[in-house]
């Protein structure tokens, strides 16, 4: 089958905010304990952080990591996680019904983030707590010294403030499962007053108002309209969360789920701009898609989990090749909306619905979804372009007119490099793409990376890497045309210079 594209330097979406390649570490399952932190592991450094895990995180060039939750943050007392470790309380963790011994907290995480070369996106507890806990935590992390909480931090061995810039005003506060869940009115008022106090403590911070926990919520998008009506003055972003599933084992339908993400983003943009119009405001609220991924493989096992264990395996989805192909498309979608999506977090980073997996005391390895995330994060920097695409289409159970070709294009001005990311959703046929690259005269293909596999359900394990990319793609240029050759059901990156 054949498709056509036109790519032009002047067809710009936006400068890409690197923070769209963010991720997430929650105190959940083995993300922290046994994931990033395992003092008994032979690879642990002097602080207990696994260096083998750190290496893979650095490879991904993750610019920002959301912490400490997630659902967990809605019943979390940040004070439990600071100060001498022997004095920290062991608590019932209510969101995931485990035991939390608080051996990692805010300062240790800041230290880990430093080592990983990433920023921290902090989330505050607006479930069981509110203004007071939030402003105290911010004073603790960001104020230089000479006050109660900043001096408390210094007494804990952290002389310099962490200066966390980005803060989430709670997590999924619309969810009935959330400890201290709220109606839109309740949340809107609390978030507004908390945001006001936080910006008095440190006006340089950026705040994320809590959006719906998914587009399937019955309160979506009225939740966004009502809450933003309250928080508009102090919020800089609104959050979006969505996980994609393939319970029905319908691959063509599953591979089209990025269209759902696209529709979700468009609806949230419209809702933000409706409130902007209503308020006659000059300010634009941008989007933080701070939880996204495939999540469904582990749900049945998690439902059988015995409560009150320390760091049990939870949400340990083992990702297939087809999951990786969808993740590639979800990344195209974020890039296509990079004019409004300024932050996004693949949820999560290690062990819990994650690209990186570990064995306690043992190996670390890359899941299938590591690869599209890695290539897009490392090479998808610069300006997102808006290609004109003409592709044959198919219909699936939930979607109509799904283009077989899904693509995003980035121009890196610094390196004078054009990067075409492209997915072929066709399960049997190669897709030949004739791409007019008129404004990139003389550019040649320097690398064509292909992620392909004959088995959509192939997975990677500690012992065996069954799904990994190769760079023997056959795309080439001829005059001002790039002839893209995308194998059946594949994700591709074609770099030209
Ligand atoms: O990422 C796993 C969970 O999914 C998070 O804790 C929560 O915010 C969402 O429901």
Automatic annotation (TrEMBL):
Hydrolase as UniProt keyword: yes
SUPFAM superfamilies given in the database record: (Trans)glycosidases (SSF51445), Glycosyl hydrolase domain (SSF51011)
A Gene Ontology BP annotation from the UniProt entry: polysaccharide catabolic process
Occurrences of domain Alpha-L-arabinofuranosidase C-terminal (ranges): 290-490
Keywords, in A-Z order: Carbohydrate metabolism, Glycosidase, Hydrolase
InterPro entries in alphabetical order: Alpha-L-AF_C, ASD1_cat, GH, Glyco_hydro_b
Known pathway: Glycan metabolism
Protein name per its UniProtKB record: non-reducing end alpha-L-arabinofuranosidase
